[in-house]
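for the writeup, i need someone to sanity check this before i put it in the appendix. the sequnce is what the collaborator sent (i think, or maybe the updated version? ugh). structure was predicted straight from it, no edits. if anything looks off just tell me and ill rerun, i have time this weekend
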Amino acid sequence: MPLATLGMFILWMGWFGFNGGSELKISDIGEANAVALVFVNTNAAAGGVISALFTAHLLFGKADLTMTLNGALAGLVAITAEPLTPTPLLATVIGAIAGILVVFAVISLDKLKIDDPVGAISVHGVVGIWGLIAVCFSNDEASLVAQLTGIATIFAFVFIASLITWSIIKAVMGVRVSQEEEYAGVDFSECGMEAYPEFTNSGK
């Protein structure tokens, strides 16, 4: 978990460059101010952290670090659809709603027995949809119909492209390891060593 937390903070730091760099220039005052606002709004991740933390605590009776980390990423994903036009307060609210959504999305996918161990579908899929819809709250040039069309287009492309790609991989080399390799750990079968020997019998 310490490594996962460190990874989240590294992503959070990199996201400033990702969103701010999308302005492409800071050579005039207007663009420099725009980049500054994008930087501030990117911290919508903070709203996601707090809301996911409290939501998980209400549901599970304790603070869940994995949900909190996903809450930060959810806030980042949600605001990335439009980090320039919201006010910082609205950006924080968008991030906070994303943090709540990601907790319920992770729980729902688990109940549906959809294999998503790191919550990628919840963070990038469910919250990504929320982020696109939230654009309508601050950008006058956006419309709900256009955003929903974009969501449908993205889903169709990703679904078809993924289906083709994974079908080819499955036919050529397979996509699952054997039960023995799964039990021993793919780190051992692929790399010849255990990633977490302290949690196995061989590490004692």
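The chain has nine helices and no strands. Residues 103 and 134 are 18 Å apart (CA to CA).
thx in advance!!
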